[in-house]
Structure to design on (267 residues):
């Protein structure tokens, strides 16, 4: 990735985003762009106020400049007027051909957990590139090495793109990669299957099929990356979330709406 775009504001969650973006930028030898959107619409209306706009812009410039200063030598900053921070980040990511957008998670919830706020939530839908949601409090342990990266896998184009993105990260960070597949209990325990073969037999067949797809995906990855696969059974979201407790970074593919992209979730 050539450019990493970071959404910033005067908050601790922006510090979390900055801490993560700095690590990835250094590992990937990428440039970093700190962006601060201020709540003003440039659409002409009776509510237009040039002095108020200038005041908001000056405040945003000070914030963006401060955050960019901690991103290293290959960093710069920008501000933009838009009532929607997510829309502003979308536009700039597209214009700058960013490879990754980084935002902090919401300020609510437990430290060390990821819970996308309104901006992060909107970024996950239709972003032109990968999106990283950084957990609350990440800045307090940002120096801890990223040793293990997990990626959720299902045989779809979006998931394959996520695996390749995770492999690139693993190489750049000299980390191990774990490709995770989940056998959903619903796939062998639905009423429609009750009159067919026994549930244990169906489960074994499904697990075998998922394991084969994992093996095939792992076999396509470069030899210079330490890779392993993990097969889980249960609710996919719950199982992957639980597995993330053993990871330093989790990568999940998009749902196929719009351009291919991946979502990076720090843990």
């Amino acid at each position: 990735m050539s450019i990493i775009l970071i959404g910033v504001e005067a908050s601790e969650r922006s510090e979390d985003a900055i801490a993560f973006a700095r690590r990835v930028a250094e590992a990937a030898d990428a440039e970093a762009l700190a962006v601060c959107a201020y709540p003003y619409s440039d659409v002409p209306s009776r509510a237009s106020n040039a002095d108020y706009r200038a005041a908001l812009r000056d405040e945003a410039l000070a914030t963006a400049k401060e955050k960019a200063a901690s991103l290293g030598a290959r960093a710069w900053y920008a501000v933009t007027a838009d009532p929607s921070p997510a829309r502003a980040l979308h536009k700039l990511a597209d214009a700058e051909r960013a490879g990754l957008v980084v935002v902090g998670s919401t300020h609510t919830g437990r430290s060390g957990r990821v819970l996308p706020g309104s901006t992060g939530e909107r970024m996950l839908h239709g972003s032109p590139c990968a999106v990283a949601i950084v957990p609350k409090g990440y800045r307090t342990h940002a120096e801890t090495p990223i040793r293990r990266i997990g990626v959720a896998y299902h045989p779809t184009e979006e998931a394959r793109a996520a695996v390749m993105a995770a492999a690139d990260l693993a190489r750049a960070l000299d980390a191990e990669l774990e490709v995770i597949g989940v056998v959903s209990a619903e796939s062998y325990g639905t009423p429609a299957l009750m009159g067919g073969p026994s549930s244990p037999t169906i489960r074994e067949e499904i697990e075998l099929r998922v394991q084969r797809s994992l093996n095939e995906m792992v076999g396509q990855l470069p030899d210079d990356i330490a890779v392993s696969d993990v097969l889980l059974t249960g609710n996919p979201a719950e199982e992957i979330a639980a597995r993330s407790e053993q990871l330093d970074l989790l990568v999940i593919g998009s749902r196929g709406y719009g351009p291919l992209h991946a979502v990076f979730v720090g843990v």
Notes: The beta strands are 3-7, 31-38, 75-81, 100-104, 130-134, 148-152, 176-183, 227-233, 249-253, 262-266.
